[in-house]
Each structure stands twice: as structure tokens, then as C-alpha cells.
Amino acid sequence: MGLPEYEVYAVKYAERTNVRRADNFVGGDPHDGPMPMDYYFWVIRNQERLVLVDTGFDAEIAAKRKRTFVREPRAGLAALGIDPAEVRQIIITHLHNDHVGTFYDFPNALLHLQDEEMAYATGRYMCNHTFARPFEVEHVVGVVRLVFKNRVVFHKGDEEVFPGISVHLIGGHTAGLQAVRVHTRRGWVVLASDAAHYYENIEGRRLFPTVFNLGQMADGYEKLNRLADSPQHVIPGHDPEVLRRYPPASPELAGAIARLDEAPLS
Prior knowledge:
By secondary structure, this protein is α/β, with parallel strands linked by helices. It has nine helices and 13 strands. Strand 10 (178-184) and strand 11 form a beta hairpin.
């Protein structure tokens, strides 16, 4: 039997409109102008399996960090007919606030995380505000509590998690950032998460300034392309273009949820 094929969705839950191009590239940008940021989590599913990639943040964190909140992540799931209680598997790409913030909404789920990410988020580098700022301590402590409840599955490097779904250690943005590779009807799609915030980061090899290791980030762009069937199969983690390039999950969900296992619109 061949590998299973999955549907893949990008679900927008928040946005940040007061962002300039100079904010999104190491060294700034000589053609500065607005470059807003969308916040997503992702859904992978077929008839046999349901896997979330990340969980977003809630309204409290949106207010604290001055983000424009669009919907609770669980409401985005409801639009796809998914009850949070049904979710049994969540791949956490990294522990920044916008990727793990509503883990508590999924009482029956296991969290898949890189060893290196937990060590990073609970180790010496959190004594430095530059590295600690994107984390919320209560999120990290909450995930540590889940470790002691046997609800965290640790991965070390590149591993197959389920048939047709694998995680790949990238690093760069954080020490333990992982991307997710998914087998779909259009081939291997790679959910970059914050290994590439925007298409321009990866297409122009232009580094994003929230970074732990610049070299790992640069190498990560090459790795993402090797993992995907083509550059059009790499999905950046925060680019509003995703919702414009891919068809909506349904007509009424245009601008909210994109279908990534279908070919781009252009």
C-alpha cells in the first residue's frame, strides 16, 4: 500500500497590521513599507487520522501583545467541524506564545515536541530577554506539567510521527524549531511554521530578525526546499499571501481558512 494522503488547512486566528518591511528582515529593507503578519495554526486530516500543528494564542495574549484577534483557535476548528475534545495529536513546532498558547483547550491530546526545544525554553538562554521575550512562562510551565502527566512525546531530530507525516528539526528561530512534512494528493507539502515567516524570507534567503541562530535559519531555508516536492509546496508560517494563493476550505471561509493540499490558485 502507498502512503496515506491528507487534507491540510491553514487556519487564521489573528493578525498584526502595524508591521513594516524593515521589521521582517535582518538588516532592514531599503524599500520600507507595510508588511502585515497573519497568525495561523494548521490542521492535517484524513478518514483515519486528525493531527493539529500548533494551537495559536487566546484573546488575553492577543491583548497583552497588541495583536488583532480574529477568532479563538477552537472556533476555527469548529468551522471545520472539529471538536477540540476529539483532537488526540498535536505537533508543536516550537514553544513561542503564538504556537502553543491554547494547549489547554485540548484535554485529550498528546503534544509532539523536539527535545531541543524543551531544553531551550527551560534553560540558560531564557535568562536573556531577547530570547525569552516571545515565550510566555505560563505556557512553558503548562507544557512541563503535561510532561509529568505523560502527555508530551519527545522527538530528537527528523522522525516519522505517523505514516505520511514527519517532523524535521530546523532550529534557527528557536533552538528546537521543527517543520512538518505531510503527504497529500499533490505531493509532499512542508509546513514551515517559523522556519520561514514569509515567502520572501525563503525565496530571497532573507533572514527573519527574531532568531537564535542565524546559520541554522539560513540552512533551514535549504532544508525546507529539499523536503518539499517544489518551492510551491513550502508553506510559510505567517504570510497573508497563503490565504490569497490557496483556495478556501469553502466559499464562506474565504480569507479565513485555506486548503493547502490543493494546487495554488496561481
